[in-house]
Amino acid sequence: MERDNYWTRRIARRRLLTGSAATALGAGAWALAGCGDDDDDDDDDGGASTATATTSGVQPGTQTAPTATPAGEVIKKDGINKSRQSAIFATINPYGGLDSGLLWGFTVFDHLWYTPLDTGIRENFLATSIEQQDATHFTVVIGESFFHDKAPANGRKVTAQDIKASFETAAKQTKISNSSWWTQTLDTITTPDEKTLNFTLKQVDAWTFSSTNGGSPIGSSILPQEIAADPSFMDKDLVGSGRFQFVSHENGTNFKLKRHEKWRVSGEPYLAGVEYKLIQEQAAALAAFSSQEIYGLGLSNKLEREDILNKHGKDVVVESDDSRAVWVLLPRGDGQWADPRVIHAISYALDRKQMIELMNFGEGKLSGPVPPAFGEALPTAEIEQTWGKHDEAEAKKLLAASAFDTSKEYSIKYPTLGDRYQQFATIAKSQLEKSLGLKIKLVPEDFGRWLSQSLYGSDYDGFLAFASLAYDDPSSYITPYAKSYGGRPNWAGYMNDEMDAAVQAQRKILDDKERRAAVQEIQRKAWTNGAPFIPTFIAISNTAYWGFVKGRVTGRGSYGAFNGKVYIDKG
Amino acid sequence: MRQYALRRLAYLPLIMLVVSLVTFFTLRLPWATDPVLQYVNQNTTVEQEQEIRRELGLDKPMLQQFAIWMGEVARGDLGETFRSNQPVWQEIRRRLPVNIEILVLSVLFSTVFGVSFGVITAVKQNSVVDYGFRVFAVFGQSIPDFFLLILLIVLPSIWWNYSPPVGGHISFFEDPWENLRLYVPPTLLLGIGGAAAMMRLTRSTLLEVFRQDYMRTARAKGLAGRNVVLDHGLRNSLIPIVTLIGGHVTALFFGSLILEQIFSINGLGQFFLVSSITADFPVIQFLVLYTALLVMLMNLAVDLSYALIDPRVKYI
């Protein structure tokens, strides 16, 4: 059984989400990751993209369409999508757990905007326009929308006051793991009328609209004021204004949702409802998928994919997507480790292709600090010459040229969250020993201790091995190069003024293109300066769907979760 | 017997106090898991972390925390879980029907099969039937439950694309057919597996009883074989069997974790496990007290049952 904590819940959530064909959740949606709401695309309803071009990641919204409907195919605006729930929710309250926060953020609650990871350009949802007066002020005008027809909102209109109350309540929450944007960037919100919100920020933050910050699927969920005043109401029931209305649950499992008949996008969602079924074991999930008890399923590896395809042939579609969780080796960044040659030697010593082969049956990609799914990722050719290069001879030469003490034994600490962590640490150990002649011992640690003492407390004398969180927001991947993170000193003890200044500076670049270039430049500098956050690879994930689940969106991260055009064409 | 029972019950509060003290302070040892860590990520600031600690009531001195908890327990308030903010008792009560059904069916199947097979093998000692059941018992005890349960899901899927109704409790009173479809196959399988130990115990005890003089006397009196075996033999073999059943019942009260996990049933086993892993102190504290209480009461019940089964057993 999986440990239920922040890091493992993301895995469980990924399974949950990838299994959710109903909402066409794309690849693993993410911790503080992306959200927003259903496409504000199509139709000329209130949520359509009529945004005014501004700076700070604010540009006219792009239109997104789901998988094209083949000519002659009739769209059926109906069907119940049956999805897998892979872990029991401790609470249905979205402020009580990341799992519930994300799921309801994608379904039950509406949002003002959303920034998809592939374009990096904000799209308006309930917001019909966002005008940015200056770097710390912007005004949002909302369209027409209604809450679900349940107490206490009883189907009334969504007002600016509801949104203000929701944001203010979200900022006070501690358990939902909001980013520091909510406490350190957001200052005040005023509502001159029922349609307008004036946001004031304490400081410039170019990532304000990202899904990790002001566009968080959890924090930016729009609640009725009555519930925002007493969020404990959501321990028992949920009332939002999203595409689906919450119907029922059984002790945090087996959720039932039904279509919101007054959803702001007219004619959507196509589905009449979604039903989630708790299936924890993968073997049981495969059986349930085969017997069509569920319609979508995240597959563990390519063997499962081949098995499914052999068994069901063309009746099943398997879609692949790049994971945004990067397997990382984090050496120390201080003392003898601060010499860039040491970090380069370690990086060259790692044979990432072998890692991909051993851990993922060859299905993975080299990754730089920002994973390949993002526009901010370094080009593959560049990664192959830097972070992705394997050259034992060069590694040995560089280490020998440095003053690195090879007589000492170093540790690789990893959290005991599952076999894959141990596998990654073991492979890294073996490669470093073979290529550099280092003496390394593996130190498995209880997750709590690993997180609090080893990672946050910088208590390690060699390396930490782990998979990064799979954000929808590229800025999260470069923040570990700063001198401090979340109010704590750099985990690796890496104190490089140039890198720190670059990380801080990109937060203030409001032009999207410039900022994207700056993020890429930071990754290049990280290599040149020998920053101790060594990315290795990302896995490629596979999700199987029955062919009768139509209108899916893939490859757009959690954006796919907001697709209202999924329908069931069965029978 | 009443005095004996009262004497045993009188120890309860003292034992519970000791257990609660040990549990409470062990959970808060410096090297134990800090529950606050379940709610933070790399973006969480130190201030937010402190706020979470305050919300969970862990910012107060340890003795004060203990006094608060004991005060609540004395008032019948078991506190709220860290994870769901719901009353602990409410969370348990919601899951109890699941475990009661698993308990009843598992104990029923294992007892019926175990005792029946045990009697048959004892009566037919060294026959083909005896060897057959003994081989079955070895298999039953050596194949892990999780493997049997996985097979129960995987094989029908491979053969017939059939999936048992995993994924949640269906009340017997709401839908008897679905309820039985969910619970009977796994509990039957577990029952047969669990019956192995009971069969071996029943067989060996019965064989020993069969060699007693009173058994020979009963046969000499001309009693029918069935009466000799069941009325005289089995009754005198019941004490170890009841002891074993008592152990089964106690264990199942905490949930059948493996069955719950594989069949995705949201029962007490999973609740207690996840709570333990995530350092949900109020639940763990309750769990330990509940365990101590249940074990003591079950042992008492088993001890008292000896007197009912065997009139020679007297409690003073």
Q: What is the fold's blueprint, element by element?
A:
The complex is a heterodimer of chains A (571) and B (316).
Chain A: H1 6-18, E1 80-85, H2 98-107, E2 113-114, E3 123-124, E4 127-134, E5 137-142, H3 160-172, H4 181-185, E6 186-193, E7 196-201, H5 225-229, E8 244-250, E9 253-259, E10 273-278, H6 282-290, E11 296-299, H7 302-312, E12 316-331, H8 340-349, H9 352-360, E13 364-366, H10 380-385, H11 392-401, E14 409-415, H12 419-436, E15 439-445, H13 447-455, E16 463-467, H14 475-478, E17 484-485, E18 488-489, H15 497-506, H16 512-528, E19 534-546, E20 549-550, E21 567-568
Helix pairs in contact in A: 1-2, 8-11, 15-16
Chain B: H1 2-27, H2 46-55, H3 62-74, H4 88-123, H5 128-142, H6 145-160, H7 176-210, H8 213-220, H9 225-234, H10 238-253, H11 257-262, H12 268-277, H13 281-309
Characterise the protein shown here.
The complex is a heterodimer of chains A (571) and B (316). Chain A is α+β, with helices and mostly antiparallel strands and 571 residues long. Chain A has 16 helices and 21 strands. In chain A, the strands form 6 sheets. In chain A, strands 11, 12, 13, 14, 15, 16 and 19 form a 7-stranded mixed β-sheet that branches. In chain A, strand 4 and strand 5 form a beta hairpin. Chain A is globular. The relative contact order of chain A is 0.19. The model of chain A is unreliable at 1-66 (pLDDT under 50). Chain B is mainly alpha-helical and 316 residues long. Chain B is 73% helix and 0% strand. Chain B has helices at 2-27, 46-55, 62-74, 88-123, 128-142, 145-160, 176-210, 213-220, 225-234, 238-253, 257-262, 268-277, 281-309. In chain B, helix 4 (88-123) packs antiparallel against helix 10. Chains A and B meet through helix 6 and helix 13 of A and helix 2, helix 4, helix 6 and helix 12 of B.
Oligomer: heterodimer
Quote the average pLDDT of chain B: 85
Question: What's the helical proportion of residues of chain A?
Answer: 25-40%
Indicate the mean pLDDT of chain A. 84
The radius of gyration of chain B is 24 Å
Q: Into which percentage range does the β-strand content of chain A fall?
A: 15-25%
Question: What is the radius of gyration of chain A computed over CA atoms, rounded to a whole number of angstroms?
Answer: 23 Å
Q: In terms of per-residue confidence, which ranges of chain A show pLDDT below 50 for 5 or more consecutive residues?
A: 1-66
Please mark out the parts of chain B with pLDDT under 50 across 5 or more consecutive residues, or reply none.
Answer: none
- Largest sheet properties of chain A: 7 strands, mixed
Distance between the termini of chain A: 37 Å
**Structural class per helix/strand content of chain A?**
alpha+beta
Count of DSSP-assigned helices of chain A: 16
End-to-end distance of chain B, in Å? 6 Å
SS class of chain B: mainly alpha
Number of helices of chain B: 13
